[in-house]
Fold:
Amino acid sequence: MDAHAAHDDIRSHVKTYYMVFGALMVLTIITVGVSYLHLPIPMAIAVALIVATIKGSLVALFFMHLSNERKMIYWALALTGFFFIFLLFVPLFTNSDKIIGTLVGTQW
Amino acid sequence: MEIPYTVEVRPDTGLSNGKLGVWLFLASEVMLFGALFSSYILLRVGSAEWPHGSEELSVPLAFFNTVVLISSSVTMVMAWASLKMNDFKKFRLNLGLTILLALTFLVVKFFEYEHHLVAGEGPSHNTFYAIYFTLTGLHGLHILGGVIVNSYLWGPGARMWQTQKERFTNRIEIAGLYWHFVDLVWIFLFPILYLL
Structure:
């Protein structure tokens, strides 16, 4: 790619960055706006996390260039994602004795 | 001895060493914040009652800080894009704005902390404030770390642009990856702590 084509390529990226910026602002306003609706807690958590995930994905895909990255990074992140989700479920194990106890109780 | 693969990519990874290193560092950061998010869930689920964030904390200040941090991510990526377009002046402007926005975030956070501490709502006040100070404190330290690195790259570190343009551009790119990650963490912290 010659220098001129590279500049044009970056200019199109810049346009995308400003569009993502606009989307992030709109989504931030939506997040705050929804919180004033006083939805039931489970619904409020779901909406807040969905909007935050969309915002996070926009940052990761465009600002961190994950939409066009090398395979090695995707593999590293997939492994991280697996352990991250595992970690979020770790608190459940603190109740595992009760869960198993209940199951054993119903069997016997 | 010359550090290898700072500009050219390693044939086996397809990446420069710096970029792969920062991504692995960010992977460890995901686990660090993941452990604290996990603690938050455990504390909240196990608690008899949990205050609504908006009744305890200032939503307008946090909203302002969210806008500040998102704007700083845009200026950071624009700093990198400016170097790609060979415009050093614009790079300096954008990275300078990133640093100023980060400092604004910290000043607002300072006033938030001060307000709570004066009101006797420190980390020992209750479980909510304990996890609030832990999560936002760790995040704040990451902001401070970013300010230090970005200030070096804006000031003395920018001399590299005179001799090794591509290597310096790569440095800004990986500093940006870290900065966007810090922004990403805040995107989740904001609703979890202030709005739910």
Notes: Chain A touches chain B through 44 residues (CB under 8 Å). Residues 7 and 96 of chain A are 57 Å apart (CA to CA). Chain A is about 85% helix and 0% strand.
